[in-house]
Model the fold of this input.
Amino acid sequence: MNNKSRLHIPHPTARPGEKPDFSYLDLSPAGHADKPAVDVRTRDIEHLSRGLVRVLDDDHEAKGPWNPNFDAGQLQTGLRWMLLNRIFDERMWKIQRQGRISFYMQATGEEAVSIAQGMALRPGDMCFPSYRNQGLFMYRGVKLVDMMCQCLSNTRDMCQGRQLPIMYHSKSGNVFSISGNLGTQYPHAVGWAMAAAIKGEDHIAVSWVGDGSTAEADFHHALTFAAVYQAPVILNVVNNQWAISTFQGTAGGERRSFAARGLGLGMPGIRVDGNDLLAVYDVTSWAADRARNGGGPTLIELVTYRGGPHSTSDDPAKYRPKDEWASFPLGDPIERLKQHMIALGNWSDAKHEGLIDELETQVTAAWKEAQQHGTMTEGPRLDPATMFDDVYADKPHNLELQQRRMLEIEGGE
Ligand SMILES: Cc1ncc(C[n+]2csc(CCOP(=O)(O)OP(=O)(O)O)c2C)c(N)n1
Ligand SMILES: [Mg+2]
Done:
């Protein structure tokens, strides 16, 4: 036997107890990436899928052509919403640990994705989010109390108790329902964008998946349709390095960047520092302009790090070093923006603490209000008889039977 073939099993660079090792991450210095015109040919910007668009440098200074030159108000808006996202997540985590909701997922360390991209889009654009885009729901007008009531499956739950906690939607905010089946939002977004193009609208669709979800067939189908029909869509891959306990290499990130996934189809890809609010905002605005001007889809890879556990159901200490987040070279998006604002002279530690207090109070008030509509242990409760409504336009026969049976049992008691 002289067979040299070997099955390659990707392994993360560090497991629990080992020193975190991010040497696999290609980093470009802030300000280095060029910014092409929005009608550039894909073949002329292939390098942007390999490099990393960064604006904020390690000394918290904004640099280069992708700097959106935010004024103090815009910087504060970005900081406020990212902080709200984090404080909300921290509170919901505790609430789950107290046994008052059954499940939760945080976006810790990834807040710049939802907030910067939310800021770069227009209200008429349609968003197809993943479960880590709660910041986007907040930014697009969903009240905290309504998000909490969804997690409580109580009488004010927007899903009327039919969904897992965190599966929000917002019709008025143009944010599609979160799906538990990974990646389904990608073809939905592309289909919506194709319809917008057929109707001659200038709205675009935007979707998000994680690094792990790029291994789903839906991801690839969606890319093909988007490229073939030049759909006005932004397809985001949030590369937070982990997919529950498997690292990004398991989904195919070892040899080429996720941003390069569309190149074979002629779709441009841009790899961006996902923890840099300014860079994410500007890259998203560029892709939105390109789509609105008939340039078709763009794939954006947002390089970030999942600072917390995957969800309330797992323990990352079992599969990655405890101090990995602290060693992540792109840091924490909130801390970086805060330091940038302090360096500019329009922010301070005292103002920051004041803002945290204000947002904590807002979250506490929302939680008080949410509980009035019922918790897992206290009423009021949803009427079980309504659980068959609003699922199918035409109720299937088997559900009719089940509903009748339930009413008989209830009536008999
Ligand atoms: C089709 C499908 N397969 C598997 C799962 C179970 N699952 C839920 S989240 C997840 C990991 C996804 O990781 P990634 O796409 O990187 O997103 P992240 O959680 O890091 O944001 C898996 C395997 C699922 N929900 N749907
Ligand atoms: Mg991931």
